[in-house]
């Protein structure tokens, strides 16, 4: 129970660092694998293979979205329950979360195989790239259940205050993924099939690891078979708590599919390869901010549940500050070294001519992205899922989708790149208003409680 006491008593700065280092290490390792994977594919198979993988990206996001719905939803409720001292409720959430993960995995796998060809064509596959997309997706769908359980329960491990264990599980999975990727792609010449097989095997190991954690007696909350009996009120609450990241990921999938369609229409397969590179590198940069969310979520959730509003405010201010610093550093890297970044994947001249201006324009509003991500996490972690969902919908649906429809016919491919920074800027104004209002509410609660 020392980990639980730390959430209520440890200095916030020290506690954030304690949680951030393992979260950052694990998540950057995962993002680094995605980049290595695409570099290997780009250099051994070609940039059309990168385009094929990029076509599957929206589908991967959808699978991730359902994993977040169950996994992050469970982690939020576990944090709040532990903050209230209700371990029994936390364990019921843990069991029902696993039931929901298994159910969603089976439905997604069946739906994926039934609609695979239709979805790939809808998401931008062409005659030149669909063979690569199909090879990759077929194998990935077979491991859906491992990916959802592994990543979902890893979030709960962090929620119970066991950040180092969550880091170790991620590093083991990523390490297996990288080693097998090199063997399957470079040595055995399996191409995109090798990349997919390495991913599925690594996800299986991660799923086995996290299940052993919650059944082996070293966890704060334990997994019992009786708690897997569905309690529809708990499942409803899990879904509600996990809805903001779910909506964010589903919207991101729709956006990515729309990007692919517009890029095909106004440029071609090479432009989709550029978008694949942008996604890989952007994820690498944003993962440092996502790690802040991972580190702060158990602190915010626990102290919100315990009524320690001053600790909630201190944590929120800290993540707002550091997310902005990280965003600005990422912005400088993307604006100064776009050509170097693209050459890591492939030296094709057309890729460079499209990609260099594309990266610079697409990433031009990166400095205002960080605080939007951690603000959404704050509202989710403190049980206000609707506000977090509204922030996501504003950027992804209300602003970005219309821009992606209106701008390309006028400005061509440049309009596609412009849509994202315009959306980031406009949404930043909306999020800033919500952050200011949230700070006023926290100050009022602190004053009332005399903290």
Task: Give keywords.
mainly alpha, globular, 451 residues
Descriptive notes:
The structure is a single chain. This protein is mostly helical and 451 residues long. The chain is 87% helix and 0% strand. It is built from 16 helices and no strands. The protein has helices at 2-9, 12-44, 47-83, 87-122, 130-142, 144-159, 163-187, 191-215, 232-266, 269-306, 309-336, 338-345, 349-362, 370-381, 385-411, 413-449.
Mean pLDDT level:
86
Order of helices and strands: HHHHHHHHHHHHHHHH
Separate helix tally: 16
Strand content: under 5%
Shape descriptor reads globular
Largest sheet: none
Distance between the termini: 24 Å
Sequence stretches where pLDDT stays below 50 over 5 or more residues = none
Helix content: over 70%
Gyration radius, in Å: 21 Å
List the helices and strands and how they pair.
Elements: H1 2-9, H2 12-44, H3 47-83, H4 87-122, H5 130-142, H6 144-159, H7 163-187, H8 191-215, H9 232-266, H10 269-306, H11 309-336, H12 338-345, H13 349-362, H14 370-381, H15 385-411, H16 413-449
Helix pairs in contact: 2-3, 2-7, 2-10, 3-4, 3-5, 3-6, 3-9, 3-10, 4-5, 4-6, 4-9, 5-8, 6-7, 6-8, 7-8, 9-10, 9-15, 10-11, 10-13, 10-14, 11-14, 11-16, 12-13, 13-16, 14-15, 15-16
Write a short abstract of this structure.
The chain has 16 helices and no strands. The chain is an all-alpha fold and 451 residues long. The protein starts with a helix and ends with a helix.
